[in-house]
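I have been asked to look over a protein record a colleague put together. What it holds is a sequence and that sequence's fold in token form. Please read both lines and tell me whether the tokens look consistent with the sequence. I do not need a full report, just your reasoning and any doubts. This is what I was given:
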Amino acid sequence: MPITEMLARNARMYRDEISLVERDPAQGLRREITWLQFERLANQFANALLARGVGKGDKVALLMMNCLEWLPVYFGILKTGALAVPLNFRYTAEEIKNCLETAEAKVLVYGPEFTERIDEIREQLSLENLIFVGENCPKYVASFGEMVRQYPGDEPRVNLADHDEAALYFTSGTTGTPKAILLTHANLVSACITENRHHLQHHGDNFLCIPPLYHTGAKMHWFGSLIVGSRAVLLRGVEPRWILEAVSEERVTIVWLLVPWAQDILDAIESGGLNLKDYQLDQWRLMHIGAQPVPPSLVRRWRKYFPNQMYDTNYGLSESTGPGCVHLGLENIHKVGAIGVPGFNWEVLIVDDDGRPVPRGKVGELIVRGPGVMKEYYKNPEATRNALRNGWLHTGDMARQDKDGFIYLVDRKKDVVISGGENVYPVEIEEFLRSHDDIKDAAVIGMPDRRLGEIPVAIVEIKPGRELTEAMVMEFCEALPRYKRPRSVFFDKVPRNPTGKIEKPKLRERYCAGSVAKVV
């Protein structure tokens, strides 16, 4: 069954019930749509795309902040047989252009927040259509609102099968070079089943979705609600007060948080900025966290204030159709610190460099096999061969398994820094730093941080006879997107091994050993 069938079924069974709510506290905005309105809007957009020549195998990119239209646009694309291509809203104009070229996108759907970036590259793009979602549509772009009003809300006559290609999601290796992950309808449906099995969503639940929908984590967690036709709230903004107001006023039962947001809520409670008695939270049954390592101390603090909530940790990759290939399990809070056990319908091994399973307690690479494993890296056979071997997805993460079968992450083969749930790729920052006239060499590592999990810090080697200060380096880095900027700069020689590779373990030992206390 293609995933679009779930939406059509919900429209038939729960037509007048609310499916999605959008809350934007900063703007004082609240909007909602029913399951029937959701389905009809997706159909109208699909029919509009079909009329413009979009069909099976084409690529339609989405560059939008979370909003009420995001998911109807996504499902409208899928209903045409085209592939949805969600793009990270943090991408620079150049990164947007590169991803659109890699995906061979035919259409780009974007929101008002990205007008300036699209204008910068518009003449360089080989797109057939630009579609704008929002107010004050530029004259040279088609308006989503005007477009859908011209087309019926009837189901498009497009035959879809389980193993039809459905979406491309971009990820990157340590080089930061985007790779497009090809997922099928069967992959997406498997995520619905796995997520629902793990968190036991039922029709009466209400899921608060805060992370961006371009990310597989946010969307695939919502898939557990889609499969049972339960309500979801899209919250724009992560202020602790806004989160608790949404939970209270919308009667939310499930919330997925990133570590920094949970830390902020706890800090606000402990500082007196939030009084839990001001909110109706008794119905909030589950808080779960993913996207980065979770400090056990955070969970202990959380349970002090929310003792009746269930808790879960999730591990996954875009290559495994999001979270769930490993999860802690609602009943295993005594194992906090582990990422968990194999998820529903998933197999897990920890192997050495030759692909042989290692004994329990020994460190090796985590590999997974299950129905969510991607089809391939789009048009990248070498990367696909490296990642997919004999049906197993090699994650690049180093892990160990305890005597009870619970898996603990130890380190990442790739040197990606996960800061606040976002991947930061050191090589990109290192190459940028080396472009400075006074910098001879540079290395970037992740330093433990209580709130963000990790922060990028730079070790800079200055050219002989030159002078630099931390303030000068920080000013230079303002040309980078904010989340990629180093938070601290250390001046030192960058150690390299005989083959020229930076010896980052030495740097972590030198600069991060005393920082572990921040996250315990």
Remarks:
- The domain at 4-393 is CATH 3.40.50.12780 (Rossmann fold).
